[in-house]
């Protein structure tokens, strides 16, 4: 039996089960382990000596344009997106990288503020908000690798401002890209059908790959090692076995 | 400059700074990373094929006898103890070990309930509460290695029931023991002065070693890779560098 690729709905359902009364996980726990996995996957591929400067691109969190599109998802769930990036940025800082945060639509909820403060305390720089793309261009000029945590499994196009202008810049930089869960701009189930999505070199799928990345042929990692066996069986995920005590697993063809 | 060994007061102060408004960490985040480090250190030393059955011994949480002794510590801080063990048990389960939880004085706070539910969902067994030590004896007979997360840095003797009868049983089992932060029964600053403490083979010091373990000469790991450089410098901790993206670091003489 091969590993299941998730629809957006199923991905949502799994996150809901993890966080409901039975699953009992807090968003802090899940985000911490997911963000750690993203940072570790990036570190596995891009050595900090050759790739010290990481631009961590974080999505709009649970406010702004995206929020209107995710009716049906609990507010809790939408928090996961964007937050992963902030957690990853902090861990990358701990690993000795120099992350810079691009988060043009910061979330207003308490958890975002806290995750952001944790980065600030590590002296991780954030690109100041701006009406044009000059600050992002400047940051890209000294970036070695991009962590794309902009859109996650709840994304539905079209891409709204300011991400509509940011995505082409990221693509145009020709820098290596590590995407979290779903490359930004891709449809969660259909893939890069609009052709406007990023083309990552590395993908970190959280809990299980989504349907839209079936055709992805770069280096592909699994992260989010927190699915109890009972849940894995209920949803017939057929997850491969993580090695030892690692929090990431590289998927091979 | 060598690494600083912490007094109980300094260890408390560091945790407070991590969790106050400036540090901005939630207890969930810190406990998750600390518990993961404990599980990974155990897995590094004790292979799951030869040592599949882990007895995870958790302290009294923030209630019962201990609570009266920790005046001056915030309720938040005392939560850290015992909780680490539950998080470690869950990760050990994910790694493929068969953990059993011994937690004779379960905490009543919401976070304990949630951490416990997460273990229950993984079908991790808990030794039922009992007025005698027979259940613990039974569990020990099929245990391969003990994770000692009973007392942490806020411990002050004497050892109260039911831990006063549990500790000699754990020692008497002659099973390998991995202790978290401070071996149970040791004075946090003076070490095993009463001679009643456990004699672990492996120690996992969280954030930095405590004064009481200076004489410890087993395998010694550092975990809790979440201290920002600014905090490390403020308290002159002189922490060694963790390798790569690892969450544990083995200390060598």
From TrEMBL, chains A, B:
- YjeF N-terminal domain mapped to chain residues: 11-239
Which Gene Ontology cellular-component terms appear in the entry? mitochondrion
Catalytic activity field: (6R)-NADPHX = (6S)-NADPHX; (6R)-NADHX = (6S)-NADHX
GO MF annotation list? metal ion binding; NAD(P)HX epimerase activity; nucleotide binding
E.C. no? 5.1.99.6
Entry keyword annotation includes NADP? yes
Q: Which NCBIfam families match?
A: yjeF_nterm
Q: What is this protein called?
A: NAD(P)H-hydrate epimerase
